[in-house]
Amino acid sequence: MNTATKNLEDDHVHILKLIEVMEHITRIDDPEISHLQKIVEIIKNFADGIHHIKEENVFFPMLAKKGFPANQGPVAVMLSEHVQGRKYVKGIEENIKLYKSGNKPSLNDVYLNMNSYAGLLKNHISKENNVLFRMADNVLSESDHNALLGKFADEEKKRSSTSSGGYIKQIQDLTSFYKI
Q: Is 49 helix (H, G, I), strand (E, B) or coil?
């Protein structure tokens, strides 16, 4: 059976690949600016704009109905980490602009934010996959999973002109370019 947690875990596979690309790029002295910008676009529109929105607008509210409040416990931690991740992405984006305008030292701040984001997300995904999603699977029925999957599809359609598959292809292109 396809489940809501499996759907979210499938997203995680691709987000982790993007993180590998990010970590690889941070070891390059003169990165492709267009790749840095593409990474920010993918994070904002796929990792945050589709995946985190599915969690925040659909999955976590369902968990709240099952006794997992958003203001404490594992869901509160996940929400807090989403906010922290957005701060890192903002730092990446702002410092890319500075770097593009000739401020070469700002590349260090791009990389610092990329590595911070990567570390946060790897830990975050591990907690979701291994703890929160397993807890959710214990309380969600088959009909809950089906309802969530339908709402996930609705959220994706509302959020982006590019489908998840389009962003996944962009991630695959980056992994191919960097031979990851």
A: helix
